[in-house]
Each structure stands twice: as C-alpha cells, then as structure tokens.
Design goal:
341 residues, Peroxisomal Thiolase, Chain A, domain 1, eleven-stranded mixed sheet, 16 helices, alpha/beta, 2 domains, 11 strands
Length: 341
C-alpha cells in the first residue's frame, strides 16, 4: 500500500552549492545545468557571511563547512520572512545532518612548511587550531553556530551518517510538524566534499571500482517546515512536502506507476541505478538525475535534492503536478518524498 505517512508545508528554503545560491521558488523546468565534466571535487559558489554574521572574528572561528551551514540556514529563515522575528526564532526547532572528522588545513600547511626552522614551536601551531578540529568537528558545534547566529532557543538535534542522516532528520521533522498545530522546524544538512579526508578515503579503496565513481560535491540546504493547514491558511506555503516511505529498488517503478507519477527526481550513493532509470523511462516518466548536477552530497543530499527538485520542476508544480523524490539511504533502498503546491 502506497500512502502518505507525513506531510508539512515548506514556508522557507535556502541552499548553496555549485549551482549557486537559491531561495524559495526559483527557476523553471530544466533551468539547471549539468556538470560539464566528471571530476572528483566540486566547489560551492563564493559567498559572504556578512549578511548573517557581521563580526569577522566570529566568521574566522568557523570552518568552511560551518560557514556554509550558517549561510544556508540564514537563507531559509530569511525566505520564511522571520529573520528578525525574535519570538519565532526563539521557539524554532533545529535539526541538522552533518559529518565529523575535519582537519585544520591551515595548521597542517604551516607545520609542514616551517617544521625545520630553528625556532619552530609545534605547540604554538597546535594552539591555533579551531576547537572544531580538536573535537573532530562535533555536530554540536554546527548546532551552536546556527543557534547563536539567529538566536534559536528551541530543541536541537544532530544526525550523523551520510544520506541516512539527512533522511532521518527530515522524517523526524515531518512527523513532528504534521502532528502539531503549532511551531516551526528548521531542518537541513551540510557536506563539504573539498576536504582531503574524503579523497584519501577513495585512495585507500582504490581496488573497489564503485568508490572511484564518487564525485564529491559541496552543499548546504535548510528548510523551514510548518503545519500544512496553517501555512495554507496564512498563505505562507511555498510547497507541501510529503513522505511516503522506504522501498527496495525493484519495487520503485511499480509503486510510482500506482499513483501515475510523471515527475521523478532521483539521487543515489553507490548503487548502479541504470536498470531503475530504464524502468522509469519505459513508463514515460520525466527524470531528473540530481547526481549529474551536484555529485554526491551525503549528509546534505536529500535536503539539497528537495531544493533542486523545487527549482527544476517549478513550472510543472505551479500547474498542479506532483514531483516524486527518490533518495537512496541504504544500498538498493530508496525513501520516497514528494512536492506538490
């Protein structure tokens, strides 16, 4: 049985990736551009934190990943029209998916460059390391940066574990919001594929072809969710986000055919999806393969997929169509979400 399990209204959404900075309903059908060539590293566009974190000292205390998360959260809060609303921000629940284990590359470079100097002091260099490095970039520091930047005082929860973390945060957000008539939830994820640690991982697994196919993207995306009925009544609903459940790859085509789905967004990790894509094409479905545009995003995957699906199918959604989102969290298993205006 294929039924909606949870649903909530998106009232604000913001994202930064190699495709640029995006907020709310932007773009139109097929307005995004595919990667020109496959590469093992994709960088996000340049951005300035000045609009959300004016103090340079606070900006310097963040890693690039943390700065991306704060910026994307600010875009979503701003898009929802509550950037300076202290009452709303004070109660805003924050859910965030991220990875752990980041080195401070600036300290590494200084140590390698100056280690043979007579007056070189290793401890002096190590003291320059950000707390995020010493604590292995614990997710709580991501939560703290976002919370302090926007004066958030609601519940905070972090999730770790690649795409599974992104999906878990969204499922919890949707289940909480759909069962409540009050409150808003800010949910999002960040992944910075520029870190050497990920490319070293591929190097260590060079005998496994599937790892060599990874294209590490970099993105951060946040969404503010609210009860659907309330948001539609207030006129603040950007789009309705629905969760349908988790399905094995071999059942996907049958499940989507049962609801006459036509617009399909798909994002995978390491599974070869060619057979699934062929099945969907045979059913005359319009496919948006997100990996072709941003690479692999892990903890930021499903969050960013939702934003890009909103952009890619914007015109069709406005005309009343529903876009289905397939996000792989375990090899061969996909969680299905959908967007409808």
């Amino acid at each position: 049985m294929f039924n909606i399990q949870y649903s909530a209204a998106i009232i604000g959404i913001g994202s930064i990736s190699n495709l640029g900075v995006k907020q709310g309903r932007e773009g139109g059908d097929k307005s995004l551009h595919k990667l020109k060539a496959r590469t093992d590293i994709i960088s996000p566009v340049e951005f300035s934190l000045d609009r959300y974190v004016p103090k340079k000292k606070e900006q310097r205390s963040m890693s690039q990943s943390q700065a991306m998360a704060v910026y994307a959260a600010g875009l979503a809060i701003e898009n929802a029209g509550v950037l300076n609303d202290l009452e709303v921000c004070n109660d805003l629940r924050l859910l965030l998916s991220c990875s752990i284990g980041e080195r401070d590359e600036r300290v590494d470079v200084n140590i390698l460059k100056n280690r043979h100097e007579q007056n070189f002091c290793l401890n002096s260099e190590l003291r320059k390391m950000r707390p995020t490095t010493i604590l292995q970039r614990l997710p709580s520091l991501f939560l703290a940066n976002v919370s302090m930047a926007f004066d958030l005082n609601g519940e905070t929860v972090s999730y770790v574990g690649e795409t599974s973390a992104a999906i878990a945060s969204l499922k919890y957000a949707l289940s909480t919001v759909s069962s409540s008539n009050t409150g808003r939830t800010l949910v999002g994820g960040v992944f910075n594929g520029q870190q050497p640690i990920y490319h070293e991982m591929v190097g260590h697994n060079k005998n496994f072809p599937k790892y060599q196919e990874l294209v590490f993207g970099s993105a951060a995306t946040f969404t503010i969710l609210k009860n659907v009925d309330q948001a539609r009544q207030e006129g603040t609903c950007v789009s309705e986000l629905r969760y349908w459940g988790e399905f094995v790859k071999d059942d996907i085509a049958k499940v989507l055919k049962s609801v006459n789905a036509k617009l399909i967004s798909i994002m995978h990790e390491l599974t070869n999806t060619s057979s699934l894509l062929n099945d969907l094409i045979a059913l005359d479905m319009d496919l948006f393969n997100v990996n072709d545009y941003v690479g692999n995003l892990f903890e930021a995957s499903t969050h960013t997929q939702i934003m890009l699906t909103l952009s890619y199918y914007n015109t069709s959604l406005i005309q009343g169509s529903e876009a289905f989102i397939l996000s792989e969290n375990i090899s061969g298993r996909f969680n299905i979400f959908s967007l409808i205006h």
